[in-house]
Amino acid sequence: MASLSSPHSFTSCMLFLFFLYLSCFFNNLNAKHDIANNHKHQHRHKHTQNPPSNPRLYRAFLALQAWKHVIYSDPKNTTSNWIGPSVCNYTGIYCAPSLDDPKQTVVAGIDLNHADIAGFLPEELGLLCDLSLLHLNSNRFCGILPTTFTNLTLLYELDLSNNRFVGPFPSVVLSLPSLTYLDLRYNEFEGPLPPQLFNKPFDAFFLNSNRFTSSIPRNLGQSKASVMVFANNKFGGCLPESIVNFADTLEELLLINTSLSGCLPQQVGFLYKLRVLDFSFNNIVGPIPYSLAGLSHLEQLNLGHNMMSGIVPMGVCELPNLENFTFSYNFFCEEEGICKNLTSKRIVFDDRDNCLPEKPRQRSKKECSDNLERPVDCFELCCIEDGFGKNVTAGSVAIPPAAMPVSAPIVAPSFP
Ligand SMILES: *[C@@H]1O[C@H](CO)[C@@H](O)[C@H](O)[C@H]1NC(C)=O
Ligand SMILES: *[C@@H]1O[C@H](CO)[C@@H](O)[C@H](O)[C@H]1NC(C)=O
Ligand SMILES: *[C@@H]1O[C@H](CO)[C@@H](O)[C@H](O)[C@H]1NC(C)=O
Ligand SMILES: *[C@@H]1O[C@H](CO)[C@@H](O)[C@H](O)[C@H]1NC(C)=O
Ligand SMILES: *[C@@H]1O[C@H](CO)[C@@H](O)[C@H](O)[C@H]1NC(C)=O
Ligand SMILES: *[C@@H]1O[C@H](CO)[C@@H](O)[C@H](O)[C@H]1NC(C)=O
Ligand SMILES: *[C@@H]1O[C@H](CO)[C@@H](O)[C@H](O)[C@H]1NC(C)=O
Protein backbone atom coordinates (compact mmCIF):
# COMPACT_ATOMS: atom_id res chain seq x y z
CA MET A 1 0.00 0.00 0.00
CA ALA A 2 1.26 3.41 -0.91
CA SER A 3 0.69 4.75 2.57
CA LEU A 4 3.04 2.20 4.01
CA SER A 5 5.62 1.86 1.29
CA SER A 6 6.10 5.51 0.51
CA PRO A 7 7.42 6.85 3.80
CA HIS A 8 9.82 3.93 3.62
CA SER A 9 12.11 5.24 0.92
CA PHE A 10 12.07 8.49 2.78
CA THR A 11 12.80 6.82 6.08
CA SER A 12 15.68 4.88 4.66
CA CYS A 13 17.09 8.09 3.29
CA MET A 14 16.71 9.74 6.65
CA LEU A 15 18.22 6.69 8.31
CA PHE A 16 21.18 6.91 6.02
CA LEU A 17 21.63 10.56 6.92
CA PHE A 18 21.17 9.69 10.53
CA PHE A 19 23.92 7.07 10.41
CA LEU A 20 26.16 9.48 8.58
CA TYR A 21 25.47 11.88 11.33
CA LEU A 22 26.09 9.31 14.04
CA SER A 23 29.31 8.17 12.45
CA CYS A 24 30.34 11.78 12.71
CA PHE A 25 29.45 11.66 16.37
CA PHE A 26 31.45 8.54 16.93
CA ASN A 27 34.54 9.75 15.11
CA ASN A 28 34.49 12.82 17.20
CA LEU A 29 33.66 10.81 20.28
CA ASN A 30 36.66 8.54 19.87
CA ALA A 31 38.87 11.54 19.99
CA LYS A 32 36.94 12.88 22.93
CA HIS A 33 37.12 9.59 24.77
CA ASP A 34 40.84 9.66 25.12
CA ILE A 35 40.64 13.02 26.76
CA ALA A 36 37.57 12.07 28.76
CA ASN A 37 39.11 8.78 29.92
CA ASN A 38 42.32 10.41 31.09
CA HIS A 39 40.23 12.89 32.87
CA LYS A 40 38.17 10.18 34.52
CA HIS A 41 41.23 8.19 35.58
CA GLN A 42 42.50 11.14 37.54
CA HIS A 43 39.21 11.40 39.36
CA ARG A 44 38.50 7.75 39.82
CA HIS A 45 38.72 7.90 43.58
CA LYS A 46 35.95 10.46 43.69
CA HIS A 47 32.45 9.05 43.79
CA THR A 48 30.54 8.85 40.54
CA GLN A 49 27.78 11.30 41.45
CA ASN A 50 30.02 14.25 40.54
CA PRO A 51 28.18 16.42 38.06
CA PRO A 52 29.75 16.76 34.61
CA SER A 53 32.21 19.65 34.55
CA ASN A 54 30.95 20.79 31.15
CA PRO A 55 27.93 23.01 31.97
CA ARG A 56 25.99 21.88 28.92
CA LEU A 57 26.40 18.22 29.83
CA TYR A 58 25.40 19.16 33.34
CA ARG A 59 22.16 20.68 32.06
CA ALA A 60 21.61 17.54 29.98
CA PHE A 61 22.22 15.48 33.11
CA LEU A 62 19.54 17.46 34.96
CA ALA A 63 17.14 17.08 32.04
CA LEU A 64 17.66 13.33 31.67
CA GLN A 65 17.38 12.68 35.39
CA ALA A 66 14.12 14.65 35.48
CA TRP A 67 12.95 12.60 32.52
CA LYS A 68 13.89 9.30 34.13
CA HIS A 69 11.92 10.40 37.16
CA VAL A 70 8.67 10.58 35.13
CA ILE A 71 9.18 7.27 33.34
CA TYR A 72 6.99 4.74 35.05
CA SER A 73 7.47 1.74 32.82
CA ASP A 74 10.60 0.72 30.95
CA PRO A 75 10.13 -2.97 30.12
CA LYS A 76 13.35 -3.22 28.07
CA ASN A 77 15.46 -1.53 30.76
CA THR A 78 16.56 1.06 28.22
CA THR A 79 17.07 3.76 30.82
CA SER A 80 18.44 1.52 33.54
CA ASN A 81 21.96 2.84 32.90
CA TRP A 82 20.83 6.46 33.08
CA ILE A 83 22.75 6.83 36.30
CA GLY A 84 25.52 9.23 37.16
CA PRO A 85 27.06 12.11 35.30
CA SER A 86 28.30 10.33 32.13
CA VAL A 87 25.24 11.18 30.10
CA CYS A 88 27.05 10.35 26.87
CA ASN A 89 27.16 6.73 28.02
CA TYR A 90 23.42 6.50 28.61
CA THR A 91 21.59 4.17 26.24
CA GLY A 92 19.92 6.16 23.47
CA ILE A 93 21.86 9.36 24.15
CA TYR A 94 24.31 10.54 21.51
CA CYS A 95 26.92 13.21 22.14
CA ALA A 96 28.84 15.28 19.63
CA PRO A 97 31.00 18.39 19.64
CA SER A 98 28.90 21.48 19.99
CA LEU A 99 28.23 23.39 16.79
CA ASP A 100 29.25 26.73 18.25
CA ASP A 101 32.21 25.47 20.30
CA PRO A 102 33.72 22.22 18.97
CA LYS A 103 35.77 21.81 22.15
CA GLN A 104 32.62 21.16 24.14
CA THR A 105 30.82 17.85 23.98
CA VAL A 106 27.05 18.17 24.07
CA VAL A 107 24.02 15.90 23.87
CA ALA A 108 23.04 16.18 20.20
CA GLY A 109 20.75 13.22 19.66
CA ILE A 110 18.29 11.04 21.51
CA ASP A 111 17.04 7.85 19.95
CA LEU A 112 14.65 5.80 22.03
CA ASN A 113 12.78 4.27 19.10
CA HIS A 114 10.87 1.09 19.98
CA ALA A 115 11.80 1.24 23.66
CA ASP A 116 8.15 0.80 24.75
CA ILE A 117 8.70 3.30 27.56
CA ALA A 118 5.68 4.77 29.36
CA GLY A 119 5.96 8.22 30.87
CA PHE A 120 5.85 11.94 30.21
CA LEU A 121 8.07 14.55 28.67
CA PRO A 122 9.03 16.86 31.54
CA GLU A 123 9.62 20.60 31.25
CA GLU A 124 13.29 20.06 31.98
CA LEU A 125 13.78 18.70 28.44
CA GLY A 126 14.03 22.39 27.52
CA LEU A 127 17.52 22.22 29.00
CA LEU A 128 18.65 20.05 26.08
CA CYS A 129 19.25 23.09 23.92
CA ASP A 130 21.92 21.36 21.82
CA LEU A 131 19.57 18.61 20.66
CA SER A 132 19.33 18.00 16.90
CA LEU A 133 17.48 14.71 16.79
CA LEU A 134 14.72 13.42 19.02
CA HIS A 135 13.35 10.04 18.01
CA LEU A 136 10.73 8.54 20.27
CA ASN A 137 8.93 6.29 17.80
CA SER A 138 6.90 3.43 19.32
CA ASN A 139 6.85 4.19 23.00
CA ARG A 140 4.01 4.95 25.37
CA PHE A 141 4.76 8.57 26.11
CA CYS A 142 1.62 10.48 26.90
CA GLY A 143 0.49 13.96 27.80
CA ILE A 144 1.54 17.03 25.87
CA LEU A 145 4.80 18.52 24.63
CA PRO A 146 6.15 20.94 27.23
CA THR A 147 6.31 24.57 26.08
CA THR A 148 9.98 24.60 27.08
CA PHE A 149 10.58 22.83 23.75
CA THR A 150 10.89 26.35 22.30
CA ASN A 151 14.39 26.20 23.75
CA LEU A 152 15.40 23.43 21.32
CA THR A 153 16.48 25.81 18.62
CA LEU A 154 18.74 23.27 16.90
CA LEU A 155 16.14 20.51 16.74
CA TYR A 156 16.10 19.20 13.21
CA GLU A 157 14.17 15.93 13.37
CA LEU A 158 11.29 15.31 15.74
CA ASP A 159 9.69 11.89 15.61
CA LEU A 160 6.95 11.35 18.16
CA SER A 161 5.11 8.75 16.11
CA ASN A 162 3.22 5.88 17.64
CA ASN A 163 2.90 7.20 21.17
CA ARG A 164 0.00 8.45 23.23
CA PHE A 165 0.39 12.19 23.01
CA VAL A 166 -2.85 14.08 23.34
CA GLY A 167 -4.28 17.57 23.16
CA PRO A 168 -4.24 20.16 20.42
CA PHE A 169 -1.60 20.36 17.73
CA PRO A 170 1.69 20.97 19.59
CA SER A 171 2.16 24.52 18.34
CA VAL A 172 5.49 24.73 20.10
CA VAL A 173 6.99 22.90 17.10
CA LEU A 174 6.13 25.88 14.90
CA SER A 175 8.60 27.98 16.83
CA LEU A 176 11.53 25.65 16.19
CA PRO A 177 13.68 27.36 13.59
CA SER A 178 15.66 24.29 12.52
CA LEU A 179 12.87 21.73 12.37
CA THR A 180 12.80 19.91 9.04
CA TYR A 181 11.22 16.56 9.73
CA LEU A 182 8.07 16.31 11.82
CA ASP A 183 6.42 12.99 12.49
CA LEU A 184 3.34 13.01 14.72
CA ARG A 185 1.51 10.05 13.23
CA TYR A 186 -0.32 7.52 15.36
CA ASN A 187 -1.04 9.68 18.38
CA GLU A 188 -4.18 11.20 19.81
CA PHE A 189 -3.68 14.81 18.82
CA GLU A 190 -6.97 16.50 18.05
CA GLY A 191 -8.59 19.68 16.84
CA PRO A 192 -7.55 22.09 14.12
CA LEU A 193 -4.19 22.30 12.44
CA PRO A 194 -2.61 25.73 12.70
CA PRO A 195 -2.49 27.29 9.21
CA GLN A 196 1.14 28.30 9.79
CA LEU A 197 2.05 24.62 9.70
CA PHE A 198 1.71 24.59 5.92
CA ASN A 199 4.12 27.49 5.54
CA LYS A 200 6.95 26.00 7.55
CA PRO A 201 9.99 24.90 5.56
CA PHE A 202 9.63 21.28 6.65
CA ASP A 203 10.88 18.63 4.30
CA ALA A 204 8.38 16.08 5.50
CA PHE A 205 5.41 15.92 7.75
CA PHE A 206 3.46 12.94 8.82
CA LEU A 207 0.23 13.67 10.63
CA ASN A 208 -1.72 10.54 9.81
CA SER A 209 -3.87 8.67 12.29
CA ASN A 210 -4.61 11.43 14.73
CA ARG A 211 -7.84 13.29 15.30
CA PHE A 212 -7.11 16.52 13.52
CA THR A 213 -10.21 18.19 12.18
CA SER A 214 -9.63 21.42 10.31
CA SER A 215 -9.76 21.70 6.56
CA ILE A 216 -6.60 22.46 4.64
CA PRO A 217 -6.26 26.25 4.57
CA ARG A 218 -7.21 27.78 1.25
CA ASN A 219 -4.19 30.02 0.99
CA LEU A 220 -1.29 27.66 1.30
CA GLY A 221 2.04 29.39 1.37
CA GLN A 222 5.23 28.24 -0.20
CA SER A 223 6.20 24.88 1.24
CA LYS A 224 9.40 22.92 0.88
CA ALA A 225 7.81 19.60 1.76
CA SER A 226 8.61 16.55 -0.31
CA VAL A 227 6.33 14.26 1.68
CA MET A 228 2.98 15.09 3.23
CA VAL A 229 0.96 12.32 4.80
CA PHE A 230 -2.37 13.24 6.33
CA ALA A 231 -4.28 9.98 6.21
CA ASN A 232 -7.02 9.09 8.68
CA ASN A 233 -7.93 12.49 10.06
CA LYS A 234 -11.25 14.30 9.79
CA PHE A 235 -10.20 17.34 7.77
CA GLY A 236 -13.19 17.96 5.55
CA GLY A 237 -13.27 20.75 2.99
CA CYS A 238 -11.65 20.73 -0.43
CA LEU A 239 -8.13 20.45 -1.63
CA PRO A 240 -7.26 24.10 -2.29
CA GLU A 241 -5.86 25.26 -5.62
CA SER A 242 -2.94 26.75 -3.75
CA ILE A 243 -1.58 23.21 -3.41
CA VAL A 244 0.28 24.22 -6.56
CA ASN A 245 2.63 26.20 -4.30
CA PHE A 246 4.14 22.87 -3.31
CA ALA A 247 5.01 21.96 -6.90
CA ASP A 248 8.75 22.40 -6.73
CA THR A 249 9.25 19.87 -3.96
CA LEU A 250 6.26 17.62 -3.34
CA GLU A 251 6.83 13.97 -4.24
CA GLU A 252 4.30 12.19 -2.08
CA LEU A 253 0.85 13.47 -1.18
CA LEU A 254 -1.31 11.11 0.83
CA LEU A 255 -4.72 12.35 1.90
CA ILE A 256 -6.38 8.97 2.45
CA ASN A 257 -9.58 9.03 4.51
CA THR A 258 -9.51 12.71 5.43
CA SER A 259 -13.18 13.56 4.69
CA LEU A 260 -12.19 15.66 1.67
CA SER A 261 -15.02 16.74 -0.59
CA GLY A 262 -15.52 18.86 -3.69
CA CYS A 263 -13.68 18.35 -6.98
CA LEU A 264 -9.97 17.85 -7.42
CA PRO A 265 -8.48 21.13 -8.61
CA GLN A 266 -6.54 20.86 -11.85
CA GLN A 267 -3.58 22.31 -9.94
CA VAL A 268 -2.93 18.80 -8.61
CA GLY A 269 -1.65 18.05 -12.07
CA PHE A 270 0.99 20.75 -11.77
CA LEU A 271 2.72 18.99 -8.88
CA TYR A 272 5.15 17.69 -11.44
CA LYS A 273 7.46 15.86 -9.03
CA LEU A 274 4.76 13.63 -7.56
CA ARG A 275 5.53 9.93 -7.37
CA VAL A 276 2.68 8.97 -5.04
CA LEU A 277 -0.78 10.51 -5.04
CA ASP A 278 -3.46 8.97 -2.91
CA PHE A 279 -6.90 10.50 -2.32
CA SER A 280 -8.68 7.26 -1.53
CA PHE A 281 -11.57 6.99 0.94
CA ASN A 282 -12.90 10.54 0.65
CA ASN A 283 -16.03 12.21 -0.72
CA ILE A 284 -14.43 13.70 -3.80
CA VAL A 285 -16.79 14.27 -6.73
CA GLY A 286 -16.34 15.28 -10.34
CA PRO A 287 -13.87 14.21 -13.00
CA ILE A 288 -10.21 13.28 -13.00
CA PRO A 289 -8.52 16.53 -14.07
CA TYR A 290 -6.84 16.10 -17.47
CA SER A 291 -3.86 17.91 -16.01
CA LEU A 292 -2.86 14.71 -14.18
CA ALA A 293 -1.42 13.66 -17.53
CA GLY A 294 1.45 16.00 -16.69
CA LEU A 295 2.64 13.96 -13.72
CA SER A 296 5.41 12.18 -15.55
CA HIS A 297 7.05 10.81 -12.38
CA LEU A 298 3.82 9.41 -10.97
CA GLU A 299 4.09 5.75 -9.95
CA GLN A 300 1.15 5.23 -7.61
CA LEU A 301 -2.26 6.81 -8.16
CA ASN A 302 -5.15 5.91 -5.91
CA LEU A 303 -8.54 7.58 -6.33
CA GLY A 304 -10.53 4.62 -4.99
CA HIS A 305 -13.58 4.97 -2.72
CA ASN A 306 -14.78 8.42 -3.74
CA MET A 307 -17.75 9.64 -5.79
CA MET A 308 -15.85 10.69 -8.87
CA SER A 309 -17.42 10.37 -12.29
CA GLY A 310 -16.87 10.94 -15.99
CA ILE A 311 -14.07 9.59 -18.14
CA VAL A 312 -10.82 7.96 -17.07
CA PRO A 313 -8.53 9.95 -19.34
CA MET A 314 -6.04 8.30 -21.63
CA GLY A 315 -3.33 10.79 -20.71
CA VAL A 316 -3.25 9.39 -17.18
CA CYS A 317 -3.10 5.77 -18.32
CA GLU A 318 -0.20 6.64 -20.59
CA LEU A 319 1.93 8.15 -17.85
CA PRO A 320 5.40 6.69 -18.40
CA ASN A 321 6.10 5.68 -14.80
CA LEU A 322 2.66 4.62 -13.67
CA GLU A 323 2.79 1.25 -11.88
CA ASN A 324 -0.45 1.09 -9.96
CA PHE A 325 -3.69 2.90 -10.74
CA THR A 326 -6.65 2.33 -8.43
CA PHE A 327 -9.97 3.98 -9.20
CA SER A 328 -12.42 1.44 -7.86
CA TYR A 329 -15.58 2.44 -5.94
CA ASN A 330 -16.42 5.56 -7.93
CA PHE A 331 -18.89 6.32 -10.74
CA PHE A 332 -16.61 6.47 -13.76
CA CYS A 333 -18.54 5.58 -16.90
CA GLU A 334 -15.89 5.41 -19.59
CA GLU A 335 -12.26 4.42 -19.98
CA GLU A 336 -10.51 6.25 -22.75
CA GLY A 337 -8.15 4.40 -25.11
CA ILE A 338 -5.48 2.37 -23.39
CA CYS A 339 -7.26 2.78 -20.04
CA LYS A 340 -9.52 -0.05 -21.21
CA ASN A 341 -6.61 -2.45 -21.11
CA LEU A 342 -4.06 -1.43 -18.51
CA THR A 343 -2.82 -5.02 -18.40
CA SER A 344 -1.25 -4.43 -21.77
CA LYS A 345 0.82 -1.68 -20.14
CA ARG A 346 1.64 -3.90 -17.14
CA ILE A 347 0.00 -1.42 -14.84
CA VAL A 348 -1.57 -2.88 -11.72
CA PHE A 349 -5.09 -1.51 -11.64
CA ASP A 350 -8.42 -1.77 -9.89
CA ASP A 351 -11.50 -0.49 -11.73
CA ARG A 352 -14.17 -2.38 -9.81
CA ASP A 353 -17.48 -0.87 -8.71
CA ASN A 354 -17.79 1.89 -11.24
CA CYS A 355 -20.25 2.31 -14.10
CA LEU A 356 -18.03 0.92 -16.86
CA PRO A 357 -20.39 -0.87 -19.24
CA GLU A 358 -17.89 -3.39 -20.61
CA LYS A 359 -16.18 -4.33 -17.36
CA PRO A 360 -17.06 -6.99 -14.80
CA ARG A 361 -17.92 -6.24 -11.17
CA GLN A 362 -19.55 -2.86 -11.71
CA ARG A 363 -22.31 -1.00 -9.86
CA SER A 364 -25.93 -1.67 -10.71
CA LYS A 365 -27.62 0.26 -13.52
CA LYS A 366 -29.84 1.93 -10.96
CA GLU A 367 -26.98 3.19 -8.82
CA CYS A 368 -25.29 4.54 -11.92
CA SER A 369 -28.34 6.31 -13.31
CA ASP A 370 -29.17 7.77 -9.90
CA ASN A 371 -25.72 9.22 -9.79
CA LEU A 372 -25.99 10.59 -13.34
CA GLU A 373 -29.10 12.49 -12.28
CA ARG A 374 -26.97 14.47 -9.87
CA PRO A 375 -24.49 16.10 -12.23
CA VAL A 376 -21.54 17.81 -10.62
CA ASP A 377 -20.52 21.32 -11.56
CA CYS A 378 -17.13 21.88 -10.03
CA PHE A 379 -17.30 25.59 -10.68
CA GLU A 380 -20.54 25.83 -8.76
CA LEU A 381 -19.34 23.71 -5.93
CA CYS A 382 -17.88 25.93 -3.32
CA CYS A 383 -16.03 25.04 -0.22
CA ILE A 384 -16.58 27.11 2.85
CA GLU A 385 -13.09 27.23 4.18
CA ASP A 386 -12.82 30.64 5.71
CA GLY A 387 -11.53 30.29 9.19
CA PHE A 388 -11.70 26.62 9.77
CA GLY A 389 -15.28 25.80 9.01
CA LYS A 390 -15.71 22.54 7.25
CA ASN A 391 -18.62 22.46 4.94
CA VAL A 392 -19.44 22.14 1.30
CA THR A 393 -22.45 23.86 -0.18
CA ALA A 394 -23.53 23.83 -3.77
CA GLY A 395 -24.23 26.93 -5.72
CA SER A 396 -24.26 29.62 -3.09
CA VAL A 397 -21.11 31.42 -4.23
CA ALA A 398 -19.83 31.12 -7.78
CA ILE A 399 -16.08 30.85 -7.98
CA PRO A 400 -14.48 31.62 -11.34
CA PRO A 401 -13.00 28.76 -13.34
CA ALA A 402 -9.44 28.11 -12.31
CA ALA A 403 -7.02 29.89 -14.59
CA MET A 404 -4.57 27.63 -16.34
CA PRO A 405 -1.00 28.75 -15.68
CA VAL A 406 0.64 29.95 -18.87
CA SER A 407 3.27 27.25 -18.82
CA ALA A 408 1.95 24.13 -17.18
CA PRO A 409 4.84 21.75 -16.61
CA ILE A 410 3.61 18.97 -18.87
CA VAL A 411 7.07 17.51 -19.27
CA ALA A 412 8.68 17.66 -15.90
CA PRO A 413 12.35 18.49 -15.69
CA SER A 414 14.45 15.63 -14.45
CA PHE A 415 15.73 15.94 -10.94
CA PRO A 416 18.49 14.11 -9.12
C1 LIG B 1 -1.83 -0.97 -5.77
O1 LIG B 1 -2.40 0.08 -5.01
C2 LIG B 1 -3.44 -0.33 -4.15
C3 LIG B 1 -4.03 0.90 -3.50
O2 LIG B 1 -3.03 1.72 -2.91
C4 LIG B 1 -2.89 -1.32 -3.13
O3 LIG B 1 -3.91 -1.76 -2.27
C5 LIG B 1 -2.27 -2.49 -3.86
O4 LIG B 1 -1.66 -3.36 -2.92
C6 LIG B 1 -1.23 -2.02 -4.85
N1 LIG B 1 -0.76 -3.16 -5.61
C7 LIG B 1 0.53 -3.35 -5.86
C8 LIG B 1 0.87 -4.59 -6.59
O5 LIG B 1 1.40 -2.56 -5.54
C1 LIG C 1 15.11 -5.50 33.45
O1 LIG C 1 15.61 -5.45 34.78
C2 LIG C 1 14.85 -6.20 35.71
C3 LIG C 1 15.37 -5.94 37.11
O2 LIG C 1 16.74 -5.72 37.09
C4 LIG C 1 14.92 -7.67 35.31
O3 LIG C 1 14.14 -8.46 36.20
C5 LIG C 1 14.39 -7.84 33.90
O4 LIG C 1 14.53 -9.18 33.46
C6 LIG C 1 15.12 -6.93 32.93
N1 LIG C 1 14.45 -6.99 31.66
C7 LIG C 1 15.11 -7.03 30.50
C8 LIG C 1 14.28 -7.09 29.25
O5 LIG C 1 16.33 -7.03 30.44
C1 LIG D 1 31.61 5.28 29.27
O1 LIG D 1 31.84 4.42 28.19
C2 LIG D 1 33.20 4.25 27.88
C3 LIG D 1 33.29 3.46 26.58
O2 LIG D 1 32.37 2.41 26.55
C4 LIG D 1 33.88 3.56 29.04
O3 LIG D 1 35.24 3.40 28.76
C5 LIG D 1 33.71 4.40 30.29
O4 LIG D 1 34.24 3.74 31.41
C6 LIG D 1 32.24 4.71 30.53
N1 LIG D 1 32.14 5.62 31.64
C7 LIG D 1 31.38 5.40 32.69
C8 LIG D 1 31.43 6.41 33.77
O5 LIG D 1 30.64 4.43 32.76
C1 LIG E 1 16.86 27.14 27.87
O1 LIG E 1 18.23 26.98 27.59
C2 LIG E 1 19.09 27.79 28.35
C3 LIG E 1 20.49 27.56 27.87
O2 LIG E 1 20.60 27.79 26.52
C4 LIG E 1 18.94 27.45 29.80
O3 LIG E 1 19.73 28.31 30.57
C5 LIG E 1 17.50 27.63 30.20
O4 LIG E 1 17.34 27.23 31.55
C6 LIG E 1 16.61 26.80 29.32
N1 LIG E 1 15.23 27.04 29.65
C7 LIG E 1 14.40 26.07 29.98
C8 LIG E 1 13.00 26.50 30.27
O5 LIG E 1 14.71 24.91 30.04
C1 LIG F 1 -10.85 6.51 8.52
O1 LIG F 1 -10.39 7.23 9.64
C2 LIG F 1 -11.15 7.00 10.81
C3 LIG F 1 -10.58 7.90 11.88
O2 LIG F 1 -10.61 9.24 11.46
C4 LIG F 1 -11.09 5.53 11.19
O3 LIG F 1 -11.89 5.31 12.34
C5 LIG F 1 -11.58 4.70 10.04
O4 LIG F 1 -11.42 3.33 10.34
C6 LIG F 1 -10.81 5.02 8.77
N1 LIG F 1 -11.37 4.32 7.63
C7 LIG F 1 -10.64 3.63 6.79
C8 LIG F 1 -11.37 3.03 5.63
O5 LIG F 1 -9.43 3.46 6.92
C1 LIG G 1 -5.28 -6.53 -23.34
O1 LIG G 1 -3.98 -6.58 -23.88
C2 LIG G 1 -3.40 -7.86 -23.81
C3 LIG G 1 -1.94 -7.75 -24.26
O2 LIG G 1 -1.70 -6.65 -25.07
C4 LIG G 1 -4.20 -8.81 -24.67
O3 LIG G 1 -3.64 -10.10 -24.62
C5 LIG G 1 -5.62 -8.84 -24.14
O4 LIG G 1 -6.43 -9.66 -24.98
C6 LIG G 1 -6.21 -7.46 -24.09
N1 LIG G 1 -7.48 -7.53 -23.39
C7 LIG G 1 -8.58 -6.95 -23.87
C8 LIG G 1 -9.80 -7.10 -23.04
O5 LIG G 1 -8.60 -6.34 -24.94
C1 LIG H 1 -23.12 22.51 6.44
O1 LIG H 1 -24.03 23.42 5.92
C2 LIG H 1 -25.38 22.97 5.96
C3 LIG H 1 -26.26 23.98 5.24
O2 LIG H 1 -25.86 25.29 5.50
C4 LIG H 1 -25.78 22.78 7.42
O3 LIG H 1 -27.09 22.29 7.50
C5 LIG H 1 -24.83 21.76 8.05
O4 LIG H 1 -25.12 21.62 9.42
C6 LIG H 1 -23.39 22.22 7.90
N1 LIG H 1 -22.52 21.17 8.37
C7 LIG H 1 -21.46 21.42 9.15
C8 LIG H 1 -20.64 20.22 9.51
O5 LIG H 1 -21.16 22.55 9.52
UniProtKB/TrEMBL annotation:
Gene field: LOC101504398
Record Gene3D superfamilies: Ribonuclease Inhibitor
Coiled coil: none
Subcellular compartments: Secreted, Cell wall
Name of this chain's protein: Cell wall hydroxyproline-rich glycoprotein
Signal peptide boundaries: 1-31
Alphabetically ordered keywords of this record: Cell wall, Glycoprotein, Hydroxylation, Leucine-rich repeat, Repeat, Secreted, Signal
Main localization of the protein described in the UniProt heading: secreted
Pfam family, one: LRR_8
Keyword Repressor (UniProt): no
InterPro entries: Leu-rich_rpt (IPR001611), LRR_dom_sf (IPR032675), LRR_extensin-like_regulator (IPR051582)
Native organism: Cicer arietinum
